[in-house]
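In practice, a research group might receive sequence data for several interacting partners and want a quick structural hypothesis before committing to experiments. The following worked case mirrors that situation: the sequences arrive first, and a predicted assembly follows.
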Amino acid sequence: MEMQQRKNGRRVVLSQTAYHQIALILEEFLSRSQARLALFADMSGYPVVYRGDADTLDLAALTALAAGDFAATAEMSRLIGQESRFKFLYHEGASRSLYLCAVGTDYFLMVVFDKSVALGIIRVLSHYTVEKIGRYIQELRQGGEQTHQFLDFEFRDMLARQLDRSLRPR
Amino acid sequence: MHIDWFRQEIVFKIVYYGPGLGGKTTNLEYLHAHLDPALRSRLVVLKSPEERTLYFDFFELALGAIKGKKPRFHLYTIPGQLYYASSRKIVLRGVDAIVFVADSQSARRQDNLDSLMDLELKLIEQGKTLAQFPWVLQYNKRDLTEIDSVDEMEQSLNFLRVPHYEAVAVQGLAVFETLRGVIQLLLNKM
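A structural hypothesis for the assembly, expressed as tokens:
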């Protein structure tokens, strides 16, 4: 059952150890590549860990769109007779570009970089970064027990009351 | 659902499902326009040249911390047209709860059913089923003429007796109630 849930990306629980390890890997990537932002995310559209300059970015929307990008191009890949999805996606802009790289089947790495940074260095360093992160993916476990610890009765009760107050038209 | 112990965040994914032109995007647009701006991200709307949803619409609702924990809700719509099947499958990935927006017009009766069956098949592919999943029905466009009665719609669509809401999304009627209802159901089922 747990394997089935994991396959479907049902309940992802990020432990502090996994968070720190992945954050360190992203920091190293940024310092070596001079990219602006490195974000590790879930294919369901959740940002997991990021490092870099995200002050002016709407990360929730950007991650949802990037996950949609993977999904759409996976279908394109299938239509041209490929069995697996594209390993990376690249969108080149006049001043900034986006590089997206799949991490296994359930996660991806997104890199935002300026035109002063060469695509080649992003590609090579992303490749190593994805390999390193791959070792910690097993730490991203689902766990019913941990979910209950987070969502105890008091929290759910307070959340329900807050929703009642917040979810009203202005 | 995504739990981040480090940042003390919990993120839920709620998807508005239903036939094309039934009012899913209208629900999201109304919510976005009438929520406190401090609580929401920008609204992402990906429309085709014919104003139909192409991939999905999306925004994030982020509530303040409760006992130090920050709950967030990712709200998505799916493209209703049947030929966008792959987009729907993707958006449903990791879904925690669903609002099924049915079009009350009698002429759309079969479209509602087809869409609900499509949803059940997509859930089954994920190892889930409507019978064991938090979802609610919204009967939209109650202000129009040539519509089915609520009893008829209940008979046709609500075979699992889930909560239902009579809505006019374009006027905001029952839009917030529907969202509150589905989140409450989700929390009760946790």
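Before designing any experiment, note the following. Chain B has a mean pLDDT of 91. Chain B has one domain: 9-189.
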